[in-house]
Design a protein that fits this description.
The chain has about 475 residues and is an alpha/beta fold. The protein has helices at about 1-20, 55-60, 185-195, 360-370, 420-460, 460-474, and strands at about 30-35, 40, 65-70, 80, 90-95, 100, 115, 135-140, 140, 150, 175, 200, 225, 250, 260, 270-275, 285, 295-300, 310, 325, 350, 355, 385. The chain is globular. The chain starts with a helix and ends with a helix. The structure holds 2-acetamido-2-deoxy-beta-D-glucopyranose (7 copies).
Length: about 475
């Protein structure tokens, strides 16, 4: 009897404690000190709906450089003004809440805020006024925040206030991915181009299909750009404005059909290029990669309709020692031109996940030119055809009837009309016109000369008549 009642009480107590915990009442944020320089306040997953006061231990902490406060996965709806925090580099995360509003001057007590994550919330462009990032207030003016990284991904932003970055002069990394921007309108462009210290910009999955020239004009430090998952049918021309600084370009999952010599114009400092998951990409044309004079790593993978790569795609950069890693995995390739790359010069080559036709050309690339030694051990490509070799590693094939290779003989794809571009047609017409023109001028000159000599001959009547007379008399 006794023990049963006791058990019942225990159950009730534990249910109460659990309910209290679940409402966040019984679970204060954890303060931890991972090392002498760092302090972390963990307020994750505590069903918090409003920003609380900091625990005493935090406000009295001194001599900490890095202070991290995380409110990950709570139910905060309004970022109200935060109390001040110790630390010279402060990071705060509000990732995964229900934030709809941010109060003016919300961070004015935290001038040393360098990292702010507001991703996965319900923030619209209207909420992002420049006032929300105002720094400390003194003598009637607002100072700036030290903010370097701002994550606004996965929100409801259509447009940015033109003065949004007025109080964040040190902003170097801006994530706007997964927002319904659709069009980079005039004010958004002004906002972006005012963030002149930006080095990293993520515009992936923002439903944009063009970038106005002015958007990049001020970004003289931009090193890394992600344009994946948008509606671009060509690589935007405006990129050439940041060509002197851009080092990492990601251009996955856009509806481009081909890459050509216009695609990467001016991007002479790009070290790593990633062009993947472009379901409509069918062809990489001649000189596509030629402007990328510093290219070190190329990821051209998971383009499920990519069938052709021109043997001139790497014209004038393939001999350079800079190109080290080329990944062509998981496309729809069956053949590669033997002179596409200087295969032996690469460190890593990826070719897996294609339907390779194991013919003499492929044997030349893999065996004779040494490409076979560049695959990662667990990623050796297989032959798909001919039937006899289907499923075999392409490094395993020996084809007895292949001719003795003559390296001076290079691969040529048949010339097709689709190789003709308006530019080429124009040059051809100009060429023909020049030939015709020169021909006409020559013709005229000859005619003039003939006429001249005829006249000159007529001017010698004696001889002429003599001849005539002679012939008459003859
Ligand atoms: C601790 O601080 C150092 C810099 O002093 C930083 O690089 C590191 O990531 C921090 N560690 C944690 C767990 O915050
Ligand atoms: C923060 O607290 C939550 C809930 O107690 C826990 O799941 C999480 O692992 C903690 N995070 C860190 C970085 O300690
Ligand atoms: C956040 O918390 C909710 C419960 O409050 C949970 O269902 C959800 O999976 C969590 N999200 C993440 C990303 O952990
Ligand atoms: C957020 O908090 C501020 C300050 O308390 C208040 O002025 C503002 O109206 C709040 N916003 C919403 C949407 O409740
Ligand atoms: C911006 O960075 C510089 C150099 O690190 C620093 O001196 C300056 O105080 C920072 N600006 C703000 C507003 O914190
Ligand atoms: C690859 O190309 C072949 C035709 O060459 C086509 O039948 C096949 O469906 C393509 N594969 C994919 C994944 O699109
Ligand atoms: C590669 O060749 C060896 C013999 O030379 C054979 O045992 C092996 O099965 C082959 N592997 C494949 C995947 O073709």
């Amino acid at each position: 009897m006794h023990s049963q009642r006791a058990r019942g009480v225990l159950v009730i107590i534990s249910v109460l404690v659990y309910a209290g915990w679940a409402r966040g009442e019984g679970r204060p944020c954890d303060v931890s000190v991972p090392d002498v320089n760092n302090l972390t306040l963990n307020c994750s997953r505590r069903d918090i709906t409003e920003i609380p006061d900091w625990p005493e231990r935090l406000t009295t902490a001194v001599d900490k450089d890095h202070v991290l406060v995380t409110f990950f996965n709570n139910s905060i709806t309004n970022v109200t003004r935060l109390p001040s925090l110790p630390g010279s580099r402060i990071a705060i995360s509000f990732k995964n809440n229900r934030i709809r509003d941010v109060q003016e001057d919300a961070f004015r007590n935290i001038q040393r805020l360098v990292y702010l994550d507001l991703s996965n919330n319900c923030i619209s462009g209207d909420v992002l006024r420049s006032e929300i990032f105002q720094g400390p207030y003194s003598d009637g003016v607002y100072g700036s925040l030290a903010l370097e990284t701002l994550n606004l991904g996965f929100n409801e932003i259509h447009s940015l206030d033109r003065y949004l970055f007025q109080y964040t002069p040190n902003l170097t990394r801006l994530y706007l991915n997964n927002n319904p921007i659709e069009i980079l309108d005039h004010v958004t462009v002004l906002a972006l181009s005012s963030a002149t210290n930006l080095e990293v910009l993520d515009l992936s999955k923002t439903a944009i299909d063009s970038i106005p020239l002015d958007a990049f004009r001020g970004l003289v430090n931009l090193r890394q750009l992600d344009l994946s998952g948008n509606g671009f049918v060509t690589v935007p021309e405006s990129l050439s404005l940041v060509g002197s600084t851009l080092q990492y370009l990601t251009f996955n999952n856009n509806p481009i059909i081909e890459l050509n010599d216009d695609s990467f114009v001016g991007l002479s400092n790009v070290l790593e290029l990633e062009v993947g998951e472009n379901d409509y990409l069918e062809e990489v044309k001649r000189s596509t990669f030629t402007p990328l004079k510093s290219l070190r790593v190329l990821h051209l993978c998971h383009n499920k309709n990519l069938k052709y790569i021109s043997h001139n795609a790497f014209r004038s950069i393939k001999e350079k020692l800079t190109l080290k890693e080329v990944y062509l995995d998981n496309n729809n390739l069956s053949e590669l031109p033997t002179d596409l790359l200087v295969w032996s010069q690469l460190d890593i080559l990826g070719m897996s996940g294609n339907s390779w036709l194991c013919n003499c050309d492929l044997a030349d690339i893999v065996v004779k030119q040494g490409a076979g030694t560049k695959f990662k051990t667990d990623e050796i490509p297989h032959c798909a055809a001919p039937m006899r070799l289907s499923g075999a590693y392409i490094t395993n094939i020996t084809i007895p009837f292949c001719p003795v290779f003559d390296t001076s003989f290079t691969y040529k794809r048949g010339f097709t009309l689709s190789d003709l571009k308006p530019k080429h047609v124009l040059w051809s017409i100009l060429g023909v016109a020049t030939v015709v023109g020169v021909g006409m001028i020559c013709g005229l000159l000859v005619n003039a000369a003939k006429a001249f000599y005829r006249r000159k001959l007529r001017a010698e009547p004696i001889r002429y008549f003599n001849i005539n007379e002679d012939s008459e008399f003859a």
